[in-house]
Write a structure and sequence with these properties.
Blueprint: H1 3-9, H2 35-43, E1 51-57, E2 59-60, E3 72-73, H3 78-97, E4 104-111, H4 119-132, E5 135-145, H5 152-160, E6 165-171, H6 175-180, H7 187-199, E7 204-211, H8 218-230, E8 235-240, H9 262-278, E9 282-284, E10 288-290, H10 295-301, E11 306-308, E12 311-313, E13 320-323, E14 328-331, E15 334-338, H11 342-350, E16 356-361, H12 364-379, E17 381-383, H13 384-391, H14 399-409, E18 413-415, E19 419-422, H15 430-435
Parallel strand pairs: 1-4, 1-13, 2-3, 4-5, 5-6, 6-7, 7-8
Antiparallel strand pairs: 8-10, 9-10, 11-12, 14-15, 15-16, 17-19, 18-19
Helix pairs in contact: 3-4, 4-5, 8-9
The chain binds S-adenosylmethionine and iron/sulfur cluster.
Iron/sulfur cluster (SF4) binds at residues 60, 62-64, 67, 69, 71, 111-113, 146, 169, 183.
Length: 451
């Protein structure tokens, strides 16, 4: 049987499995966990260990049709300004909750479009966070940037507040593809943004691309990759287009008949990947590429690559405090998500409470499986010896699952007492193999396809 047929028979094109930016995944969180557990867990944090902070800005001036992010469109600044006021109130509640002396090692602003904020709101928000959780000496501050929604003044304001990493959304440079996804973005505008970011001292620049978009073919994607290489990013994320119109209603505007079909998607991803590795990038996990000097490549080389809600990261900090509507905190006791809808989040904060509304309390078994899945997603290798050392007898619960994976995936995997390793030929199946270690029923939840 041909390689692609074998991958297909193992579910490459029809499995609907999570991307495992967390385990358990957010759709299986329960409403049994809320603000009470959030407050207790935050209050019990060890103040000597720096935390990471994620701030969610759920607003965009444009609403791209392909986008599955939780965000709302606005043409005026007033809802944004009012939301910043709510974030400040959430920070005030956190100040009363968190232990004294807690410091922030990383901060990430995501969305939506954080660069919808004008300079005065950028300063207000950054100062409000610092007043509650002061940064460490070496802290990193990264921001998601829409190149069409930023200017020099905003970049200068972010740089003044310490931004040293940035991620820009590109998706595809081809005008026909851009038209089909409702997101026009000229190369010149993107290039000017990159130049301004570099001039402002950004040393780690990521570019987001998406394959599997309507009208994309090898020639168009190839041209996009050439343009991206001209921009010299340090990292590239190459996401497979997740067509989930049952979650993201605006995707109903996408012409489904123009979407590349399964094998074509696979070929698009493979082609772009070979262009990036051919240009000297290191492939990282299932969908990232990085220059060897970049932190992500160094983390991958030293076993420090991790996965969080933004995807791959070199941030090894175990605690993440999510601030803003829908943000998820990863705390020593488990996950807590703030009310996903902005209106519900605002109502909770304005009532003077934390906004946690769903989550998951981690058992030891969950922690074991979470780390096992993270190892598979990051390293294509589950280090059984490391899991035994960390989890002792609990790790035995994986043995039967590992044997099942060995039987099902044959020579796409190597299994020894030390490790379960996915061979390069089996790496397109990574999400499917990871899902073999997921104990929570996924039946009720519909994810995007695995390739
Ligand atoms: C918050 S957005 C990017 C920041 C900024 N708003 C922009 O548009 O440039 C995060 C990224 O998620 C990715 N993304 C959004 N919707 C997606 C989908 N349906 N499938 C795959 N990737 C998606 C895109 O690559 C996008 O750049
Ligand atoms: S891709 Fe960016 S700008 Fe477009 S809707 Fe999504 S978050 Fe907003």
């Amino acid at each position: 049987m041909k390689q692609i047929d074998r991958l297909t028979s193992l579910g490459l094109f029809n499995a609907r499995v999570p991307r495992y930016t967390s385990y358990p995944t957010a759709p299986v969180f329960s409403t049994d966990v809320g603000a009470t557990q959030q407050a207790q867990s935050l209050a019990a944090l060890d103040a000597s260990e720096p935390v990471s902070v994620y701030l969610h800005i759920p607003f965009c001036e444009r609403l791209c049709w392909f986008c599955a992010c939780r965000t709302q469109g606005t043409k005026t600044l007033s809802p944004v300004e009012s939301y910043i006021g709510t974030l400040e109130r959430e920070l005030a509640i956190l100040k009363d909750t968190l232990p004294d002396g807690l410091r922030m090692g990383r901060m990430h602003w995501g969305g939506g479009t954080p660069t919808i904020l004008p300079p005065h709101l950028i300063h207000r928000l950054a100062q409000a966070v610092r007043a509650v959780i002061p940064p460490t000496e070496t802290h990193e501050f990264s921001v998601e940037i829409d190149p069409t929604m930023v200017d020099r003044d905003k970049i200068a304001a972010l740089a003044q507040e310490g931004m040293n990493r940035a991620s820009i959304g590109i998706q595809d440079f081809d005008p026909k593809v851009q038209d089909a996804i409702g997101r026009m973005q000229p190369f010149d505008v993107t290039k000017a943004c990159v130049d301004d970011l570099r001039a402002a001292g950004i040393t780690s620049l990521n570019a987001d691309l998406v394959y599997g978009l309507p009208h994309q073919d090898i020639a168009r994607l190839d041209d996009t990759v050439s343009k991206v290489l001209d921009l010299s990013p340090d990292r590239v994320a190459l996401f497979g287009y997740a067509h989930v119109p049952w979650v993201s209603k605006r995707q109903k505007l996408i012409d489904e008949t123009a979407l590349p079909q399964e094998v074509e998607r696979y070929e698009l991803a493979s082609h772009a990947a070979s262009r990036f590795t051919g240009a000297g990038f290191t492939a990282i996990g299932i969908d990232h590429f990085a220059r060897s000097a970049d932190g992500l490549a160094r983390a991958a080389a030293t076993g420090h690559l991790r996965r969080n809600f933004q995807g791959y990261t070199d941030d090894t900090c175990p605690t993440l405090i999510g601030i803003g509507a829908s943000s998820i905190s990863r705390l020593p006791t488990g996950y807590v998500q703030n009310a996903p809808a902005t209106a519900a989040y605002v109502q909770r904060i304005e009532a003077g409470e934390l906004a946690g509304s769903r989550g998951h309390v981690m058992t030891r078994e969950d922690l074991l499986r979470a780390r096992a899945i993270e190892m598979i997603m990051c390293d294509f290798r589950m280090d059984r010896s490391a899991l035994r050392a960390a989890f002792g007898d609990t790790s035995r619960s994986l043995d039967l699952l590992i044997a099942q994976v060995a039987a099902q995936f044959g020579d796409f995997v190597d299994v020894t007492e030390e490790a379960l390793e996915i061979r390069p030929s089996g790496q397109p199946l990574t999400r499917i193999i990871a899902s073999a270690f997921d104990a929570y029923t996924q039946d009720a939840v519909r994810y995007s396809q695995a390739s």
